[in-house]
């Protein structure tokens, strides 16, 4: 009866405790109840959940702490003792020096350790871990007196465990609910904001879910409606529905598929998508739907197409002339190699025709580069019309074209083509409202008789073309080997002249100009000489035309101007006042826009006054581009440089232009002086030039004076100055400096006594 009453009292006390205290206080109560037992130094409360031990709290004397820590992270307790107690479901008791608890004791007064299972006998729900200041025997007796506390502790701990598990389940359910809600939010956010179009379609073709992106009037026929539940063919246009539905996965074994899809929008613009489709499997691994991710690649595709077009254009430009559209030098060489290879196989002939537009520079200078470009395009079209499709017409650059004519049987075939080209080339074409006739010079070489490789054939065609130019232009010449000898000689001279200019192997000589009235030296004319390595002197008449043709005349002219001014500075520094130094200008040099700047730089370099320099330009050069010549002469005149028109009377001067030229001197060409006593026409021309010059306020110089009679006649006609072998041959700078005084005295003596001796 007493046991029953005790049990009832225990239940009553348990009920009052559980319903009146929160969980934390229950834990504190349990710890305090055990810590208040006599000789208990430390209490640890543990629970057992799913094979894992959790430390719920500790008590040391009056200090009680609630915890929630995994036993593995709680260092000051013996996990081996806890595990033995839990496994055996019986209390374990050991001395403080037992190895199983060594280094795990916190209290120095501890003599024994006890671990008591709480709850069911077979599967404890918790453990009480005690450090006791009692011997093992005394501790065993103490534990025997605590059975009621163990039972009560078991009831409380069971209640707490059930409550904790319930809270855990609620927390898990809440977490799961939140995770489900979050996953739905994440999925909807991804679908709503994804930059791609995503669509999931079940096995019947119904849309399970889809993103809004790109679902506009172009992609969807159900805009502004709910998409889910629609069949793909009711939601999308046929072309798009077919892309999403056709070729769908038919089984679980099918893998991802990728392809490009395009369609034309209602605005007629091409839209491009990259589709990635993959199967969706349920928990049993069965196919239940397919997902398609469609990425709009329109911009990328348009960029790729634009780049392809650009690359195609670049490839075309790499092998074609941008102005005319004809094959360029690179493509020409490739086609020529193929043509020669075919000719070798077929034992046929190939003609290479090199063409140059006559006086093309005149068109450029007169009408502008735009007109020159228009002329080149017209010529290109005409050349193409003269040959067959199997032949090649190419532009090598500038005004130079080349034709490759295949399957030639004889020179008559070549003649027919060249005459056709010359005829159509000479046809006037309209440029800027003017009918312009621009003829062609053609050089021809034939495979295999003129060479068996492209380089040789081109070189020989080039030689023949220059022969055609030299023999009057507007014609053609077939290559022969006698031309080659002259071409090689000309090339060697050109190379030697380049070196002579570069390494200062040229020299200047100076011919004095004499005042016919008092015999004074009024200046010198600088003349260039080329001393060859073999000791011979090459005549300017031989190398100046070649320099003009190759463009070497520009660096040659600069060298002459610089050297003449350098020498003038030396003479002035040493007290020799020889008057102005005259330098002849080439047409190419004279018409350079920067030429006045160069003249100024040379004068500044040698610290000369402009009056120390005289520039001579031929009549024909000045009239070749009269309007430009007027502007250039005005610029030079404004600088203070003296200007002379050389070889006057040999060209085709317009008096209207002549009066606009700001020149100071006219020079009568030597061809009118030579027979002045025997040819009345020459005498009349010479007198007319003298009168014309004086009437225009110009000084007149006669060139090529070789006799006293010529000098006397010119003096009588009022000619101002003269130069020639009668007075002095061209002499070196050293001779001028060393003999200046002697020469002047001698020339003055000759002038006064009318006795001529060459110097």
From TrEMBL:
GO molecular function, one term: cyclic-guanylate-specific phosphodiesterase activity
EAL domain boundaries: 490-744
Catalytic activity: 3',3'-c-di-GMP + H2O = 5'-phosphoguanylyl(3'->5')guanosine + H(+)
The entry's keywords: c-di-GMP
CDD domains: EAL, GGDEF
GO biological process per UniProt: cellular response to nitric oxide
UniProt cofactor(s): Mg(2+)
EC id: 3.1.4.52
Gene3D superfamilies linked: 3.30.70.270, EAL domain (3.20.20.450), PAS domain (3.30.450.20)
One Pfam assignment: EAL
Signal peptide bounds: none
SUPFAM superfamilies: EAL domain-like, Nucleotide cyclase, PYP-like sensor domain (PAS domain)
Domain GGDEF: 348-481
Domain annotation PAC: ranges: 257-309
InterPro entries xrefs: Biofilm_reg_signaling (IPR052155), EAL_dom (IPR001633), EAL_sf (IPR035919), GGDEF_dom (IPR000160), Nucleotide_cyclase (IPR029787), PAS (IPR000014), PAS-assoc_C (IPR000700), PAS-like_dom_sf (IPR035965)
Full protein name: cyclic-guanylate-specific phosphodiesterase
Organism: Pseudoteredinibacter isoporae
Lineage: Bacteria, Pseudomonadati, Pseudomonadota, Gammaproteobacteria, Cellvibrionales
